[in-house]
Design a protein that fits this description.
- There is one protein chain.
- The protein is mostly beta strands and 93 residues long.
- It has a single domain, classed as OB fold (Dihydrolipoamide Acetyltransferase, E2P) (Beta Barrel).
- A 5-stranded mixed barrel has the order 1-2-3-5-4.
- The mean pLDDT is 89.
- InterPro entries: NA-bd_OB-fold, Ribosomal_uS17, Ribosomal_uS17_bact/chlr.
Length: 93
């Protein structure tokens, strides 16, 4: 093998995405719905506007209730729409 054709044996670590949002529903078992608000800038008019998206997040202990702020990260798929898990609540000390 030539030097420039070495096999890459180093495993690359996947960068997991993390978001912070407000719990808008806790009616499901072990699942909460979290709304994440973002501010975007229009490409042509350079005006700021708000976009929100809801994520279904795994909460195994049913700890978080509606109105709390939580941080969650990406994980393996747990169901059809649930690909996130709670890391911690931000209202806690």
């Amino acid at each position: 093998m030539k030097n420039n054709q070495k096999k890459n044996t180093d495993k690359k670590k996947k960068i997991s995405r993390a978001f912070t949002g407000l719990v808008v529903s806790d009616k499901m078992d072990k699942t909460i719905v979290v709304r994440v608000n973002r501010t975007k800038i229009h490409a042509r008019y350079h005006k700021r506007y708000h976009v929100s998206k809801n994520y279904k997040v795994h909460d195994p202990a049913n700890r978080f209730k509606t109105g709390e702020t939580v941080k969650f990260i990406e994980c393996r798929p747990m169901s059809k729409e649930k690909r996130w898990r709670v890391v911690r609540g931000l209202n806690e000390d």
